[in-house]
Queue: 2 jobs
Job 1
Amino acid sequence: MSLSSIVSPVPVALNTRRLSEHLYRKEFGEVAAAAHPLGARLMAAGCGKGAGSFFSLVPMASAFRLERATFVASARRYNGLSPADLPHSHHCGNRGERQLGQPDFTHLYNCPCLGGNTRPHDSVKNTLAHAIHQCGLVSALPKTEVQMDRVGCDTWHADIMLVDDASGTSYVIDVAIVNIDSATALQRRGDFGDVEASLVQAEAEKRALPIPQRVIQEENNSVVFVPFVMSSAGGFGPAARAFLKVLYRTARARAKWVMATGQPALERAWNTTFASTYWDMRLSVACTAASAEVVSRLVARDINMGMVTHRLRRQPWGDPNFSVYGVREGGASGG
Ligand SMILES: [Zn+2]
């Protein structure tokens, strides 16, 4: 009798990975059900494709190197923790000063001050433009903020617009980021489907805009509208996932798949060898780190503005051009 006939494995329907996935999912569901609504939403968001990629950054490329404060703010948001000690005195631009505590500290992650909304959006938009170019969908970097006019509609600007070099298909792309920890988001329930539903809803809102709607209804064969929606945890919505699939298929077909040979201009790390691993990570981090960088600056500004000072000793003058020795407008006798 040969050895192999004794030890040859009996084919069974379960393997250890599949079994552990089932157990993991069960346990995960139990923890999520018992969690605070914010916690449950963050757990769900963390399961999204691409979410939390910053945890696996290998700092071998400049785009994958984060300031310590940016990494800490990214990690704290991902885990549902406040970026500052609570209570926190927040200076919210023209909206004035407010005290943030446990129930509302997530405002810091959603505050529009210092570019809190625009910087993550633009970071994703511009990174996506480079992804499209580097993966070979177009031979030149696509334009962003492209003007679109349709009869009967107000002028609208697509975040990115391009025509595929080979197929002639046009893509109209609009980027959006859904803050899953915003005050309004937290009023909803917090289970799994809810986060994906928020992304789908954001896609629907983009599709309902007058010009995108026109594009979808009337030009469906030659023009594709892509609502590229991401969660603030760095995960991709369904339409974004579908577009990235097209992009990576293109990269394979046009010899752009292996980063070292296909996209040699890009600095990469050992865990971003292929177009998909590289660009999934770049886009996810473009979203989360751009927000975290703003948050850490916001917190620093709050701390600086909240310093307790001597009640009698004066503060610096407000006008940066003023000097105590300077010549005053209208003659030296003034002051
Ligand atoms: Zn604010």
Note: The chain has twelve helices and six strands.
Job 2
Amino acid sequence: MDELGFGNGLLSTLEPGLLERLAPRPRLVAIARGEVLIGHGQALDAVFFPVSGLIGILAETSDGEAVDSGLIGREGGVGIFEACGSRQFSAEAVVHVPGRAVRMAAAAYRQLFELSPNLRTAVHRYVEQCISETRQTLLCTVTHDMDAQLSRLILEALERGHLGDTLPLTQGTMARILGAQRSTISECLARLEREGVLARKRGALQVGDPAALEATACNCRAAIRVSNDAIWRSDEPSCEAVLAAE
Ligand SMILES: [Zn+2]
């Protein structure tokens, strides 16, 4: 396994030796909190594959209202759909949790996509996963209360970012992800804090009672897990299986 691909689910499926053939060669870069990796409406000249940290995708109205449409961690990639399509990014990719990512020129990524049947299979499944999760989140938004949605978000962000028990997401970011007022998020967090489920510490949440948080979270978590298991179930090795074997 090329060490560049180490730790990213999609790149971990690559046939050996392919990354070395790309020009320019992909690089492992640090990604800092608040850094905009791809700007709104920007022509896509690079794509990113996180190996740690979390990246949000922000959609904005012309008068500045913003919604964060999800968190991308080491299971996925940023800009990889658009790089093979319009080559424009219609949102903004911003780092919420710092870490590292493989930065790859968009042209090199298109070359890699052509060269690698394994990557094409993985990206097709990842597309399906993203669509399925978006559908479930829409359903969640209209059917589940904010305590349940927020608990789900915290648990899923911890898992996706491999962050243990501490989530360095701001209340503003959580509000944008859930399409809620920041004050509503603050009230929910205060309630969870009073119940001893978590503590707010210097811009981060520390989860002290994950079982209680799980009990508060909605059943969308289970629905997404079942869907993702079905998407990635195959005779071929899954991203997670490849990662686990490394
Ligand atoms: Zn839900």
Note: The CA atoms of residues 154 and 204 lie 11 Å apart.
